[in-house]
Write a structure and sequence with these properties.
This protein is mostly helical. The chain contains 22 helices and two strands. The protein has a two-stranded antiparallel sheet with strand order 1-2.
Length: 519
């Protein structure tokens, strides 16, 4: 435990002071530079782009302003730890490669190889931090499932077993990056993580700047992007699945929004960026998680002000009361605004796959390739879960206990494996994913992991941003498996970095508001 509680040297404090001094200069120089570059990029796209015109120039300029603002926000954050930034950037790079080259995994493997080399060199010697892992609920979520799955795979499909051990090693090295970063600097790793995510998402906005504010977005070729140009993915230089982008954007608000260590403009900017990306990605999973976290923020904030609200009219008429109530309702209002702007009831009930969504015939080659013809608001999830549960029933006892061995990552193929270019469908449910990849023991590891996370989140002294992060992550369990990690997922990174911070005893009370009237 002493490993985690050792603070960084005096250089860490000097670095923080330098960051604070540099911030005004950064903004004085950065804001004009962003404006000039955004206008230049917009003019060039408006004159020479594929769809030249005034509307293209304006849209591209606005998108580049958003991207530049995201980078400036990232660089303005105090106490940025390099470990958090590097983990975020490499994880997002792996995700972008995976979604940009779905049929050419060598690009993803290349980034993962770089990730392994960098993380291994950065965290050496590794064994000093390993005893901490069983204490982390996030390790039970992201590491245990690969180790459990490797047991059955090494017996029944050795190649898959070795590959699962490699994935487990990557997950361990990621945790070690946060542990060693905490030891080296004494800083909160989640701040650097948020900064890295901001920079990574800014790249996607830049590469998709020509279509960011368009009604029809760029979508990657192949079955995943087919018919999905109503959601923002990125651009020709790189794409990321809209759900992954939305959850990454949510991390920015979860970490920055509730923390008083950040300036008001930083917290409001984080909320604005998350709101914009939630709308552009059209992600129901992202909106659900944001709504649950926003509702929790509203309830907690108003509960803390309950004594002052015994005379509600008088309290709301005061400056303190008006600001407290406004801050309590703002996140929820933004999420509701996204919900309404995205279509309200139609947004929730939209059938994104199947004949109703596609209006295609059974002879459509793209429909035949993706084989997602179920008319369901769950986007085929329920059918995937049913298929995976049927597989589990027919698995061997070893597989039922330690995980299915049909492939390395536990995905589902709806057609015969010989059929090419069909999507590899993930469970999109954390519980089903654990059963698929780690068997019954994987489900138990999932319960232990979230049990530890909730226990640590609701201990006395835990900051509100951490509690909201755990609540928001748990809200995604039903429709996503991002809380379990995997190639390029970011939600587990927040849980891991935050838990390392809490375990290290850095549960500062810089929470907005800590008591009625704090802002």
């Amino acid at each position: 435990m002493r490993l985690l509680t050792e603070r960084g040297s005096a250089s860490a404090g000097a670095s923080a002071a330098t960051t604070r001094r540099a911030r005004p200069a950064l903004l004085r120089l950065g804001v004009p530079a962003v404006i000039v570059l955004a206008v230049a990029g917009g003019l060039f796209d408006g004159l020479h782009g594929a769809q030249a015109g005034l509307d293209t120039a304006v849209g591209t300029t606005l998108a580049l302003l958003v991207a530049g603002g995201m980078v400036l926000l990232a660089l303005s954050l105090p106490d940025l730890a390099a470990e958090g930034v590097v983990v975020a950037l490499l994880s997002l790079a792996a995700a972008v490669m995976a979604w940009s080259h779905t049929s050419e995994p060598r690009y993803t493997f290349a980034v993962l190889g770089v990730q392994v080399v960098v993380f291994a060199a950065w965290t050496f010697p590794w064994f000093r931090c390993l005893p901490v892992l069983p204490r982390l609920g996030s390790a039970w979520l992201g590491v245990a499932v690969w180790l459990l799955g490797a047991v059955s795979a090494l017996v029944l499909a050795p190649t898959y077993g070795v590959q699962r051990l490699v994935y487990a090693g990557i997950a361990v090295l990621t945790v070690l990056m946060f542990l060693r970063g905490r030891q080296r600097t004494g800083r909160d790793m989640t701040v650097g993580l948020a900064g890295g995510i901001l920079i990574g998402l800014a790249f996607l906005v830049v590469t998709g700047s020509g279509n960011f504010f368009s009604l029809s977005h760029y979508a990657p070729p192949g079955p995943w992007g087919y018919r999905f140009n109503g959601r923002f993915w990125g651009g020709p230089l790189g794409v990321l699945h809209p759900n992954g982008m939305a959850l990454a954007a949510l991390i920015i608000s979860l970490r920055i929004g509730p923390d008083r260590r950040f300036a008001v403009w930083q917290r409001l900017s984080a909320a604005a960026i998350t709101t914009l990306l939630l709308y552009e990605t059209n992600s129901r999973t992202g909106v659900l998680a944001a709504f649950v976290a926003g509702l929790a923020w509203t309830v907690v904030t108003l509960w803390r002000a309950r004594h002052s609200m015994r005379s509600p009219v008088r309290y709301l008429g005061s400056r303190e009361g008006a600001l407290t109530v406004a801050s309590a309702l703002l996140p929820l209002a933004l999420v509701v605004g996204v919900f309404v702007a995205a279509g309200g009831r139609d947004f929730v009930l939209a059938q994104r796959y199947g004949p109703v969504a596609t209006k295609a015939t059974s002879t459509d080659p793209n429909t035949a390739a993706d084989n997602l013809t179920t008319q369901s608001v769950s986007s085929g999830r329920i059918d995937n879960w049913s298929a995976m549960l049927r597989d589990w029933q027919h698995d061997t006892l070893l597989e039922k206990t330690f995980g299915n061995t049909d492939n390395t990552r536990g995905y589902l193929l709806r057609q015969a494996a010989s059929v090419k270019n069909q999507p590899k469908l993930t469970p999109d449910n954390a519980g089903v994913a654990e059963l698929r990849r780690g068997g019954v023991l994987g489900v138990l590891a999932f319960l232990v992991g979230f049990g530890l996370l909730f226990w640590r989140a609701f201990r006395r002294g835990s900051p509100l941003w951490w509690r909201l992060s755990v609540i928001g992550a748990f809200a995604t369990v039903a429709t996503s498996d991002q809380a379990l990690g995997g190639t390029g997922t970011t939600l587990l990174l927040l849980l891991t970095a935050g838990e390392v911070t809490m375990l290290a005893g850095l549960s500062d009370r810089s929470v907005l508001p800590d008591r009625p009237g704090d802002r």
